[in-house]
Amino acid sequence: MAIMATILVACSSDPVNHGMTAKQKETYSQAIAGTYTGTYVTIYNVGDNDSESVKVKEEGAEITVTDQTMHSVVLHDYPVNLISRVVDNPELAEALSGMPDMDIVVNYHFYNMQDNGDVSWGFKPTAMPITLEYGGAAHHLILKLWSKVYLQLTKANLDAHAPFADGCVFQFDIEGIYEGNTLVQDLDFVWRNNGKDFLTYFQFDRH
């Protein structure tokens, strides 16, 4: 009986997740809206194992989170040229290496809310179009972005008007480069040991 009581207490302390109403989403989206400073940290794998991974930091970066009207995150001046370091096609790699920094826009959504008011928040898959000249022709390409990582936004931080005060990270991966429906370069959105990968996270500054 003592063991059973212990199990029941442990289970009852687990957080309860549930959906959010439209009003709650609006309130929370207003609470997280704003421009935040931090650092882009890009990690890419250039060989067949993690020992060959490279980390590049870009300090002084900014992202803007909009409210529920736009429900988007703008990654300002993202260094797209870094993708060239994992591209197999030398002409495409050269064209990518000359690209200027650009803004990336991704849409976010709320996964669920716990009974204590904490919410899980992340962004949806995004296709970013770019046009490059290489091989004697213009190529209209798509960078497919994805993230399986979501942020836990605490009610305490939201009430303190500092939703990202814990120095958390906002991560996304480049899954692949496409031209139309044709896969040009597979970068796989799951970090693995047997191929090239490319991921970036935005490290929020601590305040």
What brief labels describe this structure?
disordered N terminus; 207 residues; alpha+beta; elongated
Q: Mean pLDDT, nearest integer?
A: 83
Tell me about the biggest sheet? Answer: 12 strands, antiparallel
Number of helices: 4
- CA-CA gap between termini: 48 Å
- SSE string: HEHEEEHEEEEEHEEE
Unreliable runs: 1-12
Please tell me what the overall shape is: elongated
What percent strand?
over 45%
Q: Report the helical percentage.
A: 10-25%
What's the β-strand tally?
12
Radius of gyration: 20 Å
Task: Give the structural class.
Answer: alpha+beta
Task: Give the topology, please.
Blueprint: H1 2-12, E1 17-18, H2 22-32, E2 34-45, E3 53-65, E4 72-78, H3 90-97, E5 102-114, E6 119-123, E7 126-134, E8 137-146, E9 151-153, H4 155-159, E10 169-179, E11 182-186, E12 197-204
Antiparallel strand pairs: 1-5, 2-3, 2-12, 3-4, 4-5, 5-6, 6-9, 7-8, 8-10, 10-11, 10-12
What this model shows, in words?
The protein has 207 residues and is of the alpha+beta class. It has helices at residues 2-12, 22-32, 90-97, 155-159, and strands spanning 17-18, 34-45, 53-65, 72-78, 102-114, 119-123, 126-134, 137-146, 151-153, 169-179, 182-186, 197-204. The longest helix has 11 residues, at 2-12.
In short, what is this structure?
The protein is an alpha+beta fold and 207 residues long. The chain has helices at 2-12, 22-32, 90-97, 155-159, and strands at 17-18, 34-45, 53-65, 72-78, 102-114, 119-123, 126-134, 137-146, 151-153, 169-179, 182-186, 197-204.
